[in-house]
């Protein structure tokens, strides 16, 4: 696996983290209601 492989993995992880963060915010807003 070259450096490009690691770069794509990191990019995918960043996108997953953003999705999880958005889901967390949605869950918190629902819990407040």
TrEMBL record:
It comes from the Eukaryota. This is Uncharacterized protein. It comes from Corchorus capsularis.
């Amino acid at each position: 696996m070259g450096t490009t492989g690691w770069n794509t993995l990191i990019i995918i992880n960043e996108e997953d983290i953003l999705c999880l963060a958005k889901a967390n915010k949605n869950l918190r807003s629902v819990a407040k209601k």
